[in-house]
Amino acid sequence: MIDSQALKDLFYIQKDITYLNFGAYGSCPKPIFEKYQQFQLELEIEPTVFVNETGPAYLKLARTALAEYLHCQADELVYVTNPSYAVNIIAKSLQIGPGDEVLTTNLEYGPCDKTLNFYCAQTGATYIRQKIRFPIESKEDFIYQFCAGISNKTKLIFLSHLTSSTALRLPVEEICAIAYERGIMVFVDGAHAPGQLPIDIEKLGADIYTGACHKWMMTPKGSSFLYVKKSLHHLFEPLVISWGYKTANPSGSLLIDNHQLQGTRDYSAFLTIPAAIEFMKTHQWDQVNDYCRQLSQNNAQRFCDLMGSQPNSPINDDFIGQLFSIPIYIPHPEKLHDHLYEKYQIQVPVPSHEGQFYLRYSLQGFNSQADLDQLYDAMTTIISA
Q1: Among 62, 166, 191, 376, which residue is least crowded by beta carbons within 10 Å?
Q2: How many distinct structural domains can be found in the chain?
Q3: What predicted TM-score, i.e. pTM, was given to this entire model?
């Protein structure tokens, strides 16, 4: 049994706010945040030693811990500040041109979508946003719809593990297998996956994968990673040329050499990864994930019924995790977020995607049925008014 109140005491989240927006920015539990501050203090006490000696050693330890957690090799990982940065690394160096195609869906996260579109335009390649018809009937239905966009010109498939605005888990494992058979490179945007879904990158089969640690893994902000299969490291040049480029002391990983060193910066957030993994183990986070996923799914149809809408997919583990997006049809939906926050002290986003507005709740272990009941009651009042 999950004790939501006990877990809430471990976070700094404002106590008088019903917080249903964990998926946007995460939140750092007190023990992890304290570790973060310890690293920052150590940096300031002896900057030279930290930057040149202890910091790189800590980075290696953190990368090793993350690799074990993700089931991949440590020299195939490099830390980045956020997944958008990782997408820029890959997109800038893609070997594409006129006649080539990059295939994605119409459900992707805006900045990543813009980045790939930009570089396709720069190179003359065609950027295809395969439209996914709602409601999705099954995994097989999604795969059929998406794969209709694959052609002999497809050079890269870019796909979210969990979408942002529409909050859907996509069948990336099956898409990776299909792409492998056709010799197509796959890049998975897993911003919402680490800490929410079990991840085995080697079994997944993606050539490239990026994820945020500062969301569901609960590390400090600006802590994410980029995984690239080692055989592809030579393809991707650094966004920032610094000491690691053509270094006299190679690490054995071109990915790390090219992308880790970027001049003076505070990378303390990266160093908290081992503490975050230990926190999740200590507090049995697999059980917390199960609790949150069930809470999310148990309330999904109820909210859709209230809003007179239907879910975008089946409400099951194939598609729904700790987030759920409710299609809403109300006057002035763009004002709903502020109204819920100011009048009801509920923090929940109201994203829009291709003209459709959603009310998206995302749940962490400190959330309870009472939190969702408060949102439900508020929406009932708003609709009736």
Answers
A1: 376
A2: 2
A3: 0.97
